[in-house]
């Protein structure tokens, strides 16, 4: 999916909601456990319930990898089921030396190799340019680079000063450097919703890049703050919610309750789109 | 495997060789392609040929992941085949927020979940303490944290100054900080052989920790330099070679040629153990 197509979907659906398919087999509603593939049955119901109010889906790969080969089969079926008008993100946080990153790119971008054909992969920046650029060798695919994450440990290294006068922190250097590797039509950055106070600094460096924003909901970030500081004329945000949607109920009504949660976020997003992009 | 057991194996075998099982299905000898699982058949032959001169095996997970679910099955069979006196490393470079890193830990450390029961996983430090410590919740298992990698991109961020007087670079801060999370009996660091000029600085910060050292062989690092600057009384090094062993020949003699390469490295290591640890 291109930058313009993603922007079009955002304004069409009046939503920049990304649903995180962090599906934990231990949290599934009891009535799904007799299905041949309970994880896929759950994801299918969540997608059916949210596809008109979400513009993106983001399976966190750890949840599938932790189930062994059958987890990868659930992931494949889930990806195949996501409608074509939704952007897809393999939240894998991969990164390795060049030839090896190329294999991770193949794993998520080359359907002839694994069956998977995601639009994008999240990538860790620590190993530098040759760990990231192999993902960009796949035409039309996106890299979503970790910049400033939503967790407590983000303070350990991402906030370290990395220049003599102490004005640039590591996450800012990461963004500035990565901008030389790809433009805003192939590269996004992960910025946690819990870090709303620095969205202004990030928009000063990266005024047009999409930001993938986890941390609204269970992690406590504010959708209002993130939207005010992060929205651009093209949209420019994908705000992820996972647990608050997926596990709104653990009963037979889980899909209806998930839809209600997603609709509430979409309705709030519509007001911010009107306020900040028009 | 404990610190003392690993040290014991190093002096018993007079070797700190780690064989990187970076098995590329496109590089297999032609006569293996008719096997039911050519990747496993290749790995089995490599392990048979090298297990008396290697103390560790390190499958890089990208090579298996890029083959879809059948790749994970080849990985499982390979891990099960590695002799118990060898240390096993899942070179996965994973890392995510706490609850999600816990799932990656389960994927590689909990055989009841996926079948895999590695001794250790390589982990990326960018997301900080809560992305790393969930791997340490598994008793007896090891984290091998990326510090200073062997690739060109290591200069982009790992070498940035991270304190006002510019004496500490990011990789040094990573090592110093991570030392507060675990001791040398649960934590190692990845340091590329191409970075031999900084081994002295690393040993000043981490005099006892094992270092996992890729980059000897195809990447051009010097085993002599790494050994002189990195060996400790307990050994303290695992030096990885992958392509130079695996692909020494692409004919029916590949295992014999792999053994010859591994034996040559082991013989050289024996001289360094004598010179620098006695």
TrEMBL record, chains A, B:
Name by which UniProt lists this protein: Orotidine-5'-phosphate decarboxylase
Lyase recorded as keyword: yes
Residue ranges of domain Orotidine 5'-phosphate decarboxylase in the record: 16-258
Catalytic activity entry: orotidine 5'-phosphate + H(+) = UMP + CO2
Record family assignment: Belongs to the OMP decarboxylase family. Type 2 subfamily.
Keywords assigned: Decarboxylase, Lyase, Pyrimidine biosynthesis
EC code: 4.1.1.23
Keyword Ribonucleoprotein: no
Organism: Spirosoma oryzae
Entry's Gene Ontology BP terms: 'de novo' pyrimidine nucleobase biosynthetic process; 'de novo' UMP biosynthetic process
Pathway membership, UniProt: Pyrimidine metabolism; UMP biosynthesis via de novo pathway; UMP from orotate: step 2/2
Any GO MF annotation of the entry: orotidine-5'-phosphate decarboxylase activity
Xref: InterPro entries: Aldolase_TIM (IPR013785), OMPdecase_type-2 (IPR011995), OMPdeCOase_dom (IPR001754), RibuloseP-bd_barrel (IPR011060)
